[in-house]
Amino acid sequence: MFLNYIKIAFRTLLKNKGYSFLNIFGLAIGITCASLIFLWVEDELSFNKNFDKQDQVYYVPTNQNYEGEWRTFYSTPGPLAQDMLNDIPGIVKATRSSLEERLFVVGDNSITRSGRYADADFLEIFSLKFVEGNREDAFVNPEAIVLTQETAEQLFGKDEKALGKVVRVSNKDNYLVTGVIENLPNNVSFPFNWVAPFERYRDGAEWMTEYGSNFSDTFVELAPEANFETVDTQVRALIGTKEENTDDYAFLHTIKDWHLRSKFEGGEIVGGRITYVRLFTIIAFVILLIACINFMNLSTARSEKRANEVGVRKAMGSGRGRLITQFISEALILSIIATVFSVVMLAILLPQFNLIIDKNLTLGLANPMHILSLITVAIVCGLLAGLYPAFYLSSFKPVEVLKGLKVTEGSATLIRKGLVVGQFTISIVFIIVTILVYQQIQFAKNRDLGYNKDQLLSMRIDLDFIPKFNVVQQELIRTGSVDNATLCNSSLLSGGNNGSGFSWKGGTDTEDVLISFRNVTQSFFDTTGMEIIEGRGFSETVEADSTSVLISESLAKMMGNESPIGNIISRGDDVLEVVGVVKDYVYGDMFDASDPVLFMHFPSYTRYMFIKTKAGVPINEALSDIEAVMKTHNPAFPFEYSFIDEAFNEKFKNEQLVGELSQIFAILAILISCLGLFGLAAYTAQQRRKEIGVRKVLGASVSGIVKLLSQDFLKLVLISIVLAIPIAWYFMQDWLQDYAYRIEINWWVFIIAGVVAILIAMVTVSFQAIKAAIANPADSLKTE
Amino acid sequence: MIQITDLEKFYKTEEVQTIALNKLSFNVKEGEFVAIMGPSGCGKSTLLNILGLLDDPDGGSFMFNGTEVAGYNERKRSELRKHNIGFVFQSFNLIDELTVFENVELPLIYTGVKPVERKKQVEAVLEKMQIMHRRNHFPQQLSGGQQQRVAVARAVVNNPKLILADEPTGNLDSTNGNEVMDLLIDLNEAGTTIIMVTHSEHDAKYSHRIIRMLDGQKVTENILA
Question: Which of residues 118-157 of B touch A (CB under 8 A)?
Answer without folding.
Answer: 154
